[in-house]
Hints:
Helix content is 22%, strand content 21%. It has helices at residues 2-9, 93-103, 138-149, 163-179, and strands at residues 14-19, 32-38, 57-62, 72-79, 84-91, 107-110, 128-130, 201-203. The strands form 2 sheets. Strands 7-6-3-4-5-8 form a 6-stranded mixed β-sheet. A two-stranded antiparallel ribbon has the order 1-2. α3 (138-149) crosses α4 (163-179). The relative contact order is 0.17.
Amino acid sequence: ERYSSELIRRGLSVALCDQLESTPSKGSLLKRGITRILTPGTIIEEGMLQARKNNWLAAVTIETENKNLEFRWGLASADISTGEFLVTQREGRSSLHQELSKLDAAEIIWEGSSDNKATDWCPEQLRIKEIASTPFSQPEAERTIKNHYRLSTINGLGLQGRSLALRAAGGLVSYLQNTKPTQTEYPKEKGSASIPLDLPKIIFPGEVLVIDAQ
């Protein structure tokens, strides 16, 4: 934990490799592989967490960076040490900048692409990790959410009609599944390790008092 904490503090990720079998096959070495990836937003170890602060992992989706069109965004944030899972969808670069400033996430992921390179919506002190866009596509995000919560439809979650919020939530859950934050031993089948997340709580614009970061 001491070494990992220092690497995480510098914004790096740590791949943990374990033995995947107790006895080797005849004439071969013991099989080893990556069983978990520690990232700033996916740690759950008490010794690596700050006691008085949430350790947020945030996922951002942006509809367009075209100046002629309205800037709309979706934001999903989760603290896997407590299970909190918040989702919202709003408009405006400044409102996203303000929201991320207040959240002060340990890690921010987003679907970067050749069309979406400008990140003036993100506070300078926060790190952004660009990942593949596939988990953020609407069909894939919906499938990920339904599989994770074992649902036949997402209608009861309040995400229907909020595609950007849905895509952010799906991308975040997919990222957690890939980093395996709760996995302590090699699973018998892919995806068998559960991630303790509450059902997403939708934050509706207009129903909350907006307070700036200060």
